[in-house]
Structure formats: C-alpha cells, structure tokens
C-alpha cells in the first residue's frame, strides 16, 4: 500500500482551520491512523481507526474518511500544533505517508 | 519514560550494533513491540516487529541483517543490527503496536550513524 499525503507543506496562522489529506493506493476500510511529530521528539499517536482520538488528544483534532481518502482536521490552530503529521494505514508492511509539515504563516 | 532506547552510536560500514528498549508499565510479553526508524530529515520507516506470540517480521530493507528479540525477565526489546550500511543511519524508535498496526506509546529514540 502506498500512502500519499497532501499538501507537503501547509502554512497557516494561529486560529485558522487546518485540513490535511491522506490517500491510500488501495482500500483500507477505516483502518487509518494519524501521528504528530515535533522537532527532536518521537511521533505521537493522534487519531486511529480514522476518527478515534487517542488518549489525551484535544477535541480540536478530528479525523474522517474511508476506503482510500482520509482527512485530518485541526479546527483552530494553537502554537503547539505546528509539527509534521504522518498517516499510517493497516498493512503488513506498516507503511507511513511521507508527512505534511504544518508551519506558521 | 515508558520506553527507553539505548545503544546507538557511530559505527563503521559493515559493523554491528545492538539497540535496547527498556519498557516500563507495559509487559513486553503481552504486547507486540516494534522498531521504527527515521533517517535524518526523512519520514518514518517500519523496521521490525516482535509479535506477542513470539514470532518476528522484518522490513525487506533489513531482513537477513537485523534480528529483533525479547527478554521478558528484563522487560526489554532488542534490535541486533549487523552488516550496517550508511543507509541504516537513522534515529531508531521502539513502540508498542496496538491492533491492527497503531503504534503507541513511542520511546524517545536512539541515533545510529554508519560512517567511515
């Protein structure tokens, strides 16, 4: 399975809404996860099974989609949200997308 | 820290290293544990998994060179890396795998540099 994330870079201001996309090369049903990685830190699980927030993840993060097209939405950007986001689909090879860098405009 | 990696460092091409991941508050024998790596400035690449049931799987890029193992008495996961090449240079993270493939939590990572 190949995961393609878009855009590669997203430049937004504090308080704006962020929409990140992940497209899979074949259907994964609803088995898709999102991770956040800040510089110098390990990734952190944000969303799994398309739309379930992991423990401690704020409600401004939401996920949607199915089959091959998925979206991560951050409703109102806070300073802590600027990071790289990766999607991952259920697969034998545990493939990740190439990442979307969310930067401050 | 729930997962604490160690063992990284500078090694020459063709050399070996053994990474360790000491785990707290999670029993490695009751969970599937993985290694994921990230080359400098690059994305995430899954490396290996030690399943709860005792079997292991490897990415094609490391199969035959890397061995993942588990020490339940010390609650530790290992990654023995042999025949290292510069392409193995990366930060190596250990993580628990939750069904079906979700990784949580992660360790802070250990840097492996392969260079002459």
Per-chain topology:
The complex is a heterodimer of chains A (105) and B (116).
Chain A: E1 3-6, E2 9-12, E3 18-24, E4 32-37, E5 44-48, E6 52-53, E7 61-66, E8 69-74, E9 84-89, E10 100-104
Chain B: E1 3-6, E2 9-11, E3 17-23, E4 32-38, E5 44-50, E6 56-58, E7 66-71, E8 76-81, E9 90-98, E10 102-106, E11 110-114
Parallel strand pairs in B: 2-11
Antiparallel strand pairs in B: 1-3, 3-8, 4-5, 4-9, 5-6, 7-8, 9-10, 9-11
What does this molecule look like?
- The complex is a heterodimer of chains A (105) and B (116).
- Chain A is an all-beta fold.
- Helix content of chain A is 0%, strand content 49%.
- Chain A has strands at 3-6, 9-12, 18-24, 32-37, 44-48, 52-53, 61-66, 69-74, 84-89, 100-104.
- Chain A has a six-stranded mixed beta sheet, with no helix packed on it. Chain A has a four-stranded antiparallel beta sheet with strand order 1-3-8-7, with no helix packed on it.
- Chain B is an all-beta fold.
- Helices cover 0% and strands 53% of the residues of chain B.
- Chain B is built from no helices and eleven strands.
- In chain B, the strands form two sheets. In chain B, strands 2, 4, 5, 6, 9, 10 and 11 form a seven-stranded mixed beta sheet that branches. In chain B, strands 1-3-8-7 form a four-stranded antiparallel beta sheet, with no helix packed on it.
- In chain B, a hairpin with a 4-residue loop joins strand 7 (66-71) and strand 8 (76-81).
- Chains A and B meet through strand 5 and strand 9 of A and strand 5, strand 9 and strand 10 of B.
Question: Tell me about the biggest sheet of chain B?
Answer: 7 strands, mixed
- Helix/strand class of chain A: mainly beta
Strand order of the largest sheet of chain A: 2-10-9-4-5-6
Q: Regarding quaternary structure, how should these chains be classified? A: heterodimer
Mean pLDDT of chain B: 96
Q: Uncertain regions of chain A: pLDDT < 50 for 5+ in a row?
A: none
β-strand amount of chain A: over 45%
Number of helical segments with 4 or more residues of chain B: 0
Number of helices of chain A: 0
How would the global form of chain A be characterised?
globular
Portion of residues within helices of chain B: under 10%
Low-confidence stretches of chain B: none
Q: Most extensive chain contact?
A: A-B, 23 and 21 residues
- Integer average pLDDT of chain A: 96
Distance between the termini of chain B: 33 Å
Give the radius of gyration of chain A: 13 Å
Helix percentage of chain A: under 10%
Categorize the overall geometry of chain B: globular
Measured between the Cα atoms of the first and last residue of chain A, the distance is: 33 Å
Give the strand tally of chain B. 11
């Amino acid at each position: 399975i190949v995961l393609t994330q878009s855009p590669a870079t997203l430049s937004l201001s504090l308080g704006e809404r962020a929409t990140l996309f992940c497209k899979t090369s074949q259907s994964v049903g609803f088995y898709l996860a999102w991770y956040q990685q800040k510089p110098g830190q390990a990734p952190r699980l944000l969303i799994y099974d398309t739309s379930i927030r992991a423990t401690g993840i704020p409600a401004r993060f939401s996920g949607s989609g199915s089959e091959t097209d998925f979206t991560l939405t951050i409703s109102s950007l806070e300073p802590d949200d600027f990071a790289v986001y990766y999607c991952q689909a259920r697969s034998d090879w545990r493939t990740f997308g190439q990442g979307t860098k969310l930067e401050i405009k | 820290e729930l997962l604490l990696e160690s063992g990284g460092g500078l090694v020459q091409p063709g050399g070996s290293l053994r990474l360790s991941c000491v785990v707290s508050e999670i029993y490695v024998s009751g969970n599937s544990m993985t290694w994921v790596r990230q080359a400098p400035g690059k994305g995430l690449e899954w490396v290996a998994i030690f399943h709860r049931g005792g079997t292991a799987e490897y990415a094609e890029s490391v199969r035959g060179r890397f061995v993942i193992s588990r020490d339940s008495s010390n609650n530790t996961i290992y990654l023995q890396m042999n025949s290292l090449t510069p392409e193995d240079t990366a930060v190596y993270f250990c993580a628990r795998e939750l069904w079906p493939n979700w990784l949580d939590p992660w360790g802070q990572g250990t840097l492996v540099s392969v260079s002459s």
